[in-house]
Amino acid sequence: MTDESTAEQLINMQDQPKPQDVTKLMERMFELQTLEFEETIEPNTEKRIASLRAKIPAPVLAHYDRLCARGKKGVAVVHHQTCTGCHMRVPLGVVLELQHGEDVRCCDNCGRYLYLREEPVEVSLPAPEKPAVKAGRKQLAHAR
Fold first, then answer.
1. Contacts of 52 (CB under 8 A, 6+ apart)
2. What is the CATH classification number for the domain harbouring 29?
3. Residue range(s) defining the domain that contains residue 40
């Protein structure tokens, strides 16, 4: 192995997001998309967009921009194991990778980056008791 190939590998490793940063990266991309697709623009929106773009790695941002240039949103939320961009089912393995925050994943169908939001824990209330069912059937007067 030459020193040049080792240096190239180190540079490539630095360009890729680390596993602990993947969740933050996807949150930033989702926020960027929200700001860019808003109809009303607030005074500090342009500054916020510029700061978010600076925090996203160049290869990820380039793919996001290609999707946006085609009129698509670049990030789709995964909800109930379904991509909200194309409404196709996402494989369970991909959803598990997104939960663990191991890597940035794209939808196999539409190419959008997949973002798995942390869903709030639902508190289930006990179901109301049903009224007791009477033991026998009432006989109808006209049935006799």
1. 28, 29, 31, 32, 35
2. 1.10.287.1490
3. 11-118
One-letter identity of residue 44: N
C-alpha span between 11 and 21 (Å, rounded) = 17
Residues 6+ apart with CB under 8 A from 88: 82, 107, 109, 110
**Is residue 128 assigned to a domain?**
no
* Token pair belonging to 142: 């006209």
Distance CA 114, CA 78 (A): 6
Task: Give the sheet arrangement for strand 113-115, strand by strand.
Answer: 82-83, 75-79, 113-115
- Specify the DSSP element, H or E, that contains 27: helix 22-36
Does 2 reside within a domain?
Answer: no
AA identity, residue 69: A
Exposure of 33 by Cβ count < 10 A (0-12 exposed, 13-18 middle, 19+ buried)? buried
The pLDDT tens digits of the residues spanning 41-70 come to 777 888 888 898 998 899 999 999 999 999
Task: Quick: pLDDT tens for 36-48.
Answer: 888 777 778 888 8
Q: How many domains does the chain have?
A: 1
